[in-house]
Amino acid sequence: MTKRRQLPSKAFTIxxxxxxxxxxxxxxxxxxxxxxxxxxxxxxxxxxEMMAVCDRAVRFWLSKQELVADxxxxxxxxx
Length: 79
Prior knowledge:
Elements: E1 17-24, E2 27-36, E3 47-52, E4 59-63, H1 64-69, E5 73-75
Antiparallel strand pairs: 1-2, 1-5, 2-3, 3-4
C-alpha cells in the first residue's frame, strides 16, 4: 500500500502555484486556473485545470487524485 501525500487545502485553490519536476509541454511552472467539483465532473472525481505561467495557451485538465499521487508535481515554485 502506497502512502498518500498530505497537502494543505490551499494547494488546490485557484492560482495556487505548482512545479512539474519533469517539464510538461515544455514548461515547469503552472498554476491552478479552474476547478470542477466531483459532483459536476463526468469522471465523478474533482478535476483541476493547470495553466503554464509563462504561456497561458498551455492548459490541461487532470484529477485532484492524479496531482496528489504523481510525485512529479510539487506545490509552490521550485528551480
